[in-house]
Amino acid sequence: MPASDPVRSDIAWSSADTVVVHGKNLCEEVLGTVNLGDFAYLELFGRLPDPDQSVVFNALVVALVEHGLTPSALVTRLTHLGAPESLQGAVAAGLLGLGTTFVGTMEGAARYCAEAAATDTAWRTDDAALEKVADGIVASFLDRRAAVPGIGHPVHKPLDPRAEKLFAIARGHGIDPANERLVRAVRVAAEARTGKVLPVNVTGAIGAVATAMEVPLHVVRGLGVMARAIGLVGHLVEEGNQPVAGHIWREAEERATRR
Amino acid sequence: MPASDPVRSDIAWSSADTVVVHGKNLCEEVLGTVNLGDFAYLELFGRLPDPDQSVVFNALVVALVEHGLTPSALVTRLTHLGAPESLQGAVAAGLLGLGTTFVGTMEGAARYCAEAAATDTAWRTDDAALEKVADGIVASFLDRRAAVPGIGHPVHKPLDPRAEKLFAIARGHGIDPANERLVRAVRVAAEARTGKVLPVNVTGAIGAVATAMEVPLHVVRGLGVMARAIGLVGHLVEEGNQPVAGHIWREAEERATRR
Amino acid sequence: MPASDPVRSDIAWSSADTVVVHGKNLCEEVLGTVNLGDFAYLELFGRLPDPDQSVVFNALVVALVEHGLTPSALVTRLTHLGAPESLQGAVAAGLLGLGTTFVGTMEGAARYCAEAAATDTAWRTDDAALEKVADGIVASFLDRRAAVPGIGHPVHKPLDPRAEKLFAIARGHGIDPANERLVRAVRVAAEARTGKVLPVNVTGAIGAVATAMEVPLHVVRGLGVMARAIGLVGHLVEEGNQPVAGHIWREAEERATRR
Amino acid sequence: MPASDPVRSDIAWSSADTVVVHGKNLCEEVLGTVNLGDFAYLELFGRLPDPDQSVVFNALVVALVEHGLTPSALVTRLTHLGAPESLQGAVAAGLLGLGTTFVGTMEGAARYCAEAAATDTAWRTDDAALEKVADGIVASFLDRRAAVPGIGHPVHKPLDPRAEKLFAIARGHGIDPANERLVRAVRVAAEARTGKVLPVNVTGAIGAVATAMEVPLHVVRGLGVMARAIGLVGHLVEEGNQPVAGHIWREAEERATRR
């Protein structure tokens, strides 16, 4: 094949006694010293994080791993009920629900942060400009009767403690706080326009910080996917010890077809 | 509902200002200090690893993240070609190939380590017993013309550097080396019976060490699933910059239907 | 590429004005005259069914399409809740539960029919031999404390009307009734050994008739997969008009984390 | 539970000796007389098709079953390579690629047919209005540099024989031809604006006819999902006899990592 073969991947290669991933010798430079979150960073960025980036990136992904008995967790458990031999199938099924409803809000927050940065940067330093940009974002959602991504939570009011913690970690480790300020301004604008209490939630914080760390917009959802794969394995461990899927199924079936 | 409600999960709970996962206050005890691999350990074991366990567990999972352009990576890229809007679908599709052929060998090695420990323990201290147990394991596979899990590699000969490194890390961090000795004895017995060069490979090392760390047998495959979810997101990043799926498809289609 | 190119598929080919599938001109010989079940038969066997085979095969697959609010249907609906933009993801998630628990019983019945035919055929004509083979099958499951596939039902007692109907259709259309007799003998043997009422169920009838029609054992599960894909689309239609997934999730979450 | 229980499904119910699906007695009114395509229609519409609807609906879905070695077929085969024990996983993986790229064009054609009908109906009877509506549709895609759905094909020029056949079947069985005329007018407008040869393709015909049959827009993709599930089982049958996945993988891996 010619050097210009279009079927080419530069992520990994190996010889008899060496494995290299993203330019790192796996055995000499990675195993035993690089934690899983840092290796995930390497997969996304092609380089290892510096110590500050490591702390922030690990925190972002860790915050996404476990959200309790979500629809995804129920799906993984119900799939395991039918195909206990296929752990990968149960986890894959759970991941398929990470679409616009849940993970989409993280992506939505990342998108308005990225778009605000792309079209104008005055808001990064000027409070009046910030308010105007934030209000424009809010209006664009409310005008089409859509929820504003990244704000609001049924339980965590008036503040989502995870969002506050993630912002504090990011600030403490050198991440540009402009996106944090933007999401907080979006909150203020949305509360003013709706009269509701709409705390910046964990997806808003992750969208803002991930974008500040230059995670590409189309990969933001990937943070949720990699994190939740871990959490769903955890749910299968609990389902093995304390099964709920059978109960949920039988009750739903009985209720659904009652005559 | 009564206290005995069978629909119950003890993984996580939250109040307005607190989120608790496996008994840890997420904001105060986890975010900013616990890396992703340690959090995965928490999900599997319900407790955080000690520093030695952290190093070994992170190494095991990191070693599984990236194996180049595997069938799973091809599947994720080809699925993205058809449904670029659904990153979760592309990753889920790739995970579905983590079955008996690839991840099964890790599980197979873990299984014979676990079974050997369950039926007899003399081999843990007695070399003659070790040889006998190992030879029995090898015979049980060869008798049904099956490959012995955890040994052999097309490229990494006479040693798989990842296996050697993982064993060294495990020994250096207090993991009981009995399973390592068992897998190495399996190698010797298999080479004696077959005349082939059959190094302990990375899946053999992971199966052995994970079992020594008390990862339950039915969850061993989960280490591969969580790791590979990360790697598959990485492949989507590269596919975005350097696409190969379209080429592979068009060439395969043209070759397949040539008349 | 040489004529011996291993990347080859003979299912379909096309030119500017012709599409051929399994040797049939799609536009001239298929569209408008071949129904979906017959086309599925063509996909599996490489030839169209004769009129008798058409009736029986369509009945087998139709019987598998819809079983109410099963775990698979719940999974599809819960996945849709999170990713309403990805209908294919919701259906795929539901299919992932078609494993050993549910579809496996159909496969199990097909397997003992196929194995009985492979090892001995006296039972096909001799009643005493039939009883002995059936009792051996039952014993092989009960000895390892497994359920005997293809018999027993929580609701349909003393007969599963679907099984009876499928057997009648098969007999009426020239399918060899030997497997029906075998499954019925398995029922008798199992009831004798357990003292329970264990009607031949729909999966037993399908496994028996599909095997009599020479559906390969490893493809039997495929009948369930293709049928259920249709049923799961139907559940998404109802979920759109009469949503249940959100209720099931919220109730489960509330119950699960009650303190 | 109260009569107003929100967890309710009216698709199916059963008693000891009866199974009812969408109001039909499965054993008395369905099995043995209703083919798979008609049963799929019942799942979507809640009623059986009349004889004309039966012919057209079966033809639409049959036309979607098999498109050769598509990315979905490759994905199913590659997934089978890694997890041969899980037929349902291999099919599910293949379905996950039925997103915007491929099935989306069918949905796109259905959408502009549905939108044209919703905003104005003069085009259904007036040729000048038809041309204007069609040109507006074409312009709306070209203005954002998007391909116009439902037209164009790399091989089937100047006509896609499947589209022509499906339209002929639809006309011959009483389906309102207004959407056919609209898609043909879209073709003319697109060719005029681009100078390219852009035949109405099979997805355009299916989108147009399905919409004329009142398949809801959000379910149009479901026709492709149910059809392709059948086709992917067919590819697994061929992969069992004539495997290609291993070759494609090994060649891709070797080419990709050549140094």
From TrEMBL, chains A, B, C, D:
Pathway: Carbohydrate metabolism; tricarboxylic acid cycle
InterPro entries listed in its UniProt record: Citrate_synth-like_lrg_a-sub (IPR016142), Citrate_synth-like_sm_a-sub (IPR016143), Citrate_synthase (IPR002020), Citrate_synthase_sf (IPR036969)
Pfam families in UniProt: Citrate_synt (PF00285)
Domain of life of the source: Bacteria
GO biological process, one term: tricarboxylic acid cycle
Keyword ATP-binding on entry: no
SUPFAM superfamilies membership: Citrate synthase
GO cellular component: cytosol
Designated name of the protein: citrate synthase (unknown stereospecificity)
Organismal lineage: Bacteria, Bacillati, Actinomycetota, Actinomycetes, Pseudonocardiales
